[in-house]
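note to self — DONT lose this again. spent like an hour looking for the file last time. sequence + predicted structure for the chain T wanted, 201 res
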Amino acid sequence: MGGFSRRHRFFKWFSVILGGMLFAVQTINAAESFKRGAYEEARGHFQLHGDVVPIAEDGIHDPDNAAVNALQPPAEAMLNFPRDDRGIINWVKAIDDGLINPRLGLTGNEKMHSVDFDVIFENTASMPYVRFPHRPHTIWLTCQNCHPKIFIPQRGSNPVTMAAIMAGEYCGVCHGKVAFPPFECNRCHKEPRKSAGLRYK
């Protein structure tokens, strides 16, 4: 019986130590991803800051490809587009204001069904809950863009964390790349909590 108790204590402490190590690694990876994202956000970018950078010098397009000269400069294409409080282009408002009309597919003849319902994420520690609105996403993306590869369409099946988002998973597949970066907490964490909540659970 004593041997079983010692083994039990050993495995219990081993699990605690291993869990701590895994948490530390995840935190370090998230911090590195955050720093990389902050660096990307700090670079000259018209969508994020209104900086005018020639397409051939933006670090995204191949300057040696002749097709780069056929592209419309972002500063011209997005002139006078609405921006949010941080100065980042608000794409949904640009659609609602009729400034852009995204093509539904490669040919433009495809049909798409937008949905208008929200999903509330409550596993947010001490932060306000997250309200995910389907409409801003489905007015120009089909369901297959996210389901089931990025998000399994079943309650409780997506263990979304900020560490995962910063690492480019879940919301981070788009946000921080082609959509507003995940540093704007209030744009997602805006649903009042039912209780005060704890920082760590």
